[in-house]
Design a protein that fits this description.
By secondary structure, this protein is mostly beta strands. The protein contains 6 helices and 44 strands.
Length: 621
Amino acid sequence: MLVLVSAGYLLSPKFSQAQDQYFSDETARMLPETQDMCVDADFGDIDGDGYLDIFLSETAGSDFPNMLWVNIVGDSFVDETAARLPESGANRNSRDGDFGDVDRDGDLDIFISNSDQLNQLRMNDGNGFFTDGGPRIPGGYWIRYSKDGDFGDIDGDIDLDILVGNFNYQAVLLYINDGEGYFEIAPPSRFPSGPNYTNQVDFADVDGDLDLDAALANNTGYEKQLMINDGTGWFSDESSQRIPVDTNQSNDIEFGDVDSDGDLDIGIANGFFARCKLWINDGQGYFIDETNQRLPFDSGASSEIDFGDVDNDNDLDIIIANSSQGGLSNRLYINDGEGYFTDETSARFPSAEEESSDMDFGDVDNDGDLDIIIANLGMDGVGEQNRLLVNISTPDSFPPTIPRTYQHPDTGDTINPYFTTTTAWDNISVVIGELKTSLFYRALDDTTNGLSEIDFLEIPMLDCGGFLYRERIPAQSSGKRVEYYIRSEDRMGNVSFDPPNAPDSVFSFLVDAALGIGNSPPSASLPKAFSISQNYPNPFNPSTTIDYEIPEGESVPARLRIFDIRGHLIRTLEDTEKTAGRYSVHWDGKNNKGEQVGSGVYLYRIEAGDFASTRKMILAR
């Protein structure tokens, strides 16, 4: 639920800032009082109530464990660590926490990067209470020096993998998701970044080919790295060809389209009195250092850089977290609309001397502008209060940007679903799960020439990290023409389409068995084992799709049924003999009597020969 803020709220006495400033320091009113040693703060809606909660990573020596602060309808945050996190958030010398839905059950899980301890995975029960997901990620003594993790679907199979940056001259680790939220470590040849000291990793599609590339911010003496994805989740180091040389201590690296040209540029936070950097993308994934032309001069001890539109003028501004020991306070740089920035810290920002380690954007009060959480580390073993700056700008009215969508060629594949990827971003919907991006499709008989009353079906797309969204159009029979388009909606209800005038204009492709499978992915060969996939979308309303596979050489009776959580039969979707192949089955949310069933958790079960498997799905009307 979105709460629109009236002019009276903006002028409320609880805001002490002058009207020409963007931010009011609401720490005392809204945050728990803590003198902790926080290295990272991340926004995510853990309990599905539409308000952003905060996970805080605490370093060794802090009197506080990792913490989970729950947002109470945009008015204040309550520390619910003890009730919601395993081991009451026990401190593991953590360096970073990241939200992502690793098991595709519709809620946000947490990956925690730890130093001197094993990394952790916390699984959400759907209501914002977490259990230890330790068995889901590989362990081992040598996985003990992590600084940062980032979620992203690197291999295009519509689940979230994890990239982990490590220090102590350890190699970057790539965890591959099996589709059910269990991970294995990829071989070093899959991500050949080499051993180094990596402080930060970040995914994005830099070259416009609709797969996730990766940037690495490395320590003093190590060059930044740009790893290019070949489309299947195997990377090559193309740093020397694509990015400038920089061997400063880089503590953060982030992507954002600062000049509004439809490609992603790079911002870098450097420490030890080196300037922060701004590298501009040429549109093909090659970057030019335009720091001197575009950024104000700074030279401090910067630990974080982040992009967001603080004044709601549809361009990305910059915040930078600094340590006061470096002689420079936290900074706010305002974009002129073309990617050139001015320092408006003193005019727009509540001033404070603080040892800041992280700053993140998020709309905590659902009023349509970006607020800021500041994570403070303290100094000499003494903790410091974190801060919350509330934005008092006018609400956002600009729609998301959809630079590109994959356009399917005509295909002879009648077996596999058609994987569809789009790129989308927004000026204020910057937190995972906030930008609601959907794939709409319908399948027509080719002879209709598009003149049909068949409705488009909506499939919510997975936020795959790095501004990419993916989902599958179910496989179609020969002779069908598939029409599709993309819709993206930000948290304020502003909407964009691709093609821009959809559904009057759509993308389309023909399914024709006579074409063969030359345009189809390698997975078009027959399966090697029985399997059933997680339904998609999930959660869903009003319908969902279930894929399953019968292996080569098999012909078996197959039965696919839906049950409620108490085990009562709701619907039999299939009960027939099946030969080897891949199958997609649609459930419209109705029972065997044709009646719509209510919201809730449902089970779907397949029995095919000696194979049987049951999975959970959520209908949310």
